[in-house]
Amino acid sequence: MQNKLKVPVIQAQELIKDIRLLAMCGKILFRKYLYNPLFEAGWYTEQTDRNRRKLVERIKRESEDPAFLHTIAPRCKKLICSSMNESLAAIGESSIFFLERMQLHSAVSSSSEAIEFADILTSPLNEFNKENSEKNEDLFTEAVHDADVEELKTAFEPVKLANDSEKIKLSTEIRRLYENIRIASQYHNIPKCRRLLSSYIIRYSDDGDYARDDVEKLITALNSRSPGFEDELKNNIAIDLYYRIKQGVLKGNIPTTVTAIRKYGYIFEGNSETRYFFEIDRLERILYKMISEKGLWDDLKNKKK
Prior knowledge:
The protein is an all-alpha fold. The protein folds into two domains: 9-132, no CATH class; 147-304, no CATH class. It has helices spanning 9-24, 27-40, 52-63, 69-83, 88-104, 106-109, 112-146, 149-156, 164-186, 190-204, 212-225, 229-251, 254-268, 277-294, 297-304.
C-alpha cells in the first residue's frame, strides 16, 4: 500500500468514471478489472448482507452527523465485501457509493479503508483505461468515417432558441444555477460548489449569457478559502468531459462525442497541461481529418451562421 495521507477528490472522481465506463464494456472486463482485484485483496465475505439497501441508508444518515464520520469507511468496506457475493452490479454501486463518500468527507478519504481501496483499484483501472483508449480511437475513426453527413452537421450546429419563451427559460435556468453556486459558496460547501460550477461551466461556457467575469471572481474567492479549489475544478471538468467523450464513443453517439470534444477545446483553449489533453487531441485530429476528407468544412461553417 502506498504511503499517502488521503484519497484526493479528483482520484475518487476518476475512479467513479472508470467504474461506470467499465460497466459499459461487459461482464468479462468488469470481473477482470474490478471484481478480481478486490477479491484477491481480501475484500470479500461469504456472508451476503441481505439488508444492503438498509446499510446504505444508515451510512447516509450517519454521514450527516460529524460524531459518526469515523464509522463511514469501515461500513463502506463491509458494504463492498458483502456485495462481492451478491452481483457485479452491486459491487459497482457499492464501490461508487464509497468513492462518493470520499469526495464529501475528509474523514472518509483519509481513512485506511479508503486509501487501501483506491490502491487496490488504481493499477487495474489504469490498465483498463490504456486498453480502452486504444480501442476508442479505432471505434471513433470508424464511427466518424461511417457517419451520415447530416449527422456530422448536426453535431456542429449551435443551439438555436426559436422564440422568446425558450430564451427566457434558458436565462432563468442559468440564473437559478448561478444563484445556487453563490449560496453554496456562502455556506462554504466546497464539494457542492465544485459540482455546481463544473456543471455550469460545461453547460453554458459557450453561451452568450455565460457570466464569465462573475464565475472567475467566484473561483478566485473559493480558491482563497480552499487552496487548490481551482485546480480541482479544472480537473473535475476535464474528467467529466472525458467520460462523456468515451461514453459517446462506446455508444456510437457522434453528436454527444463531438459536442464534448468541442466544449473541452473551448474551455481549456489548447492547454496541453490539462488532464487528458493528448488523448482528446488525438480524437479531435481524427475528427477534423475525416471532415477534410469528406469536404465538409464549408457546410459546417454555413451551419454555424
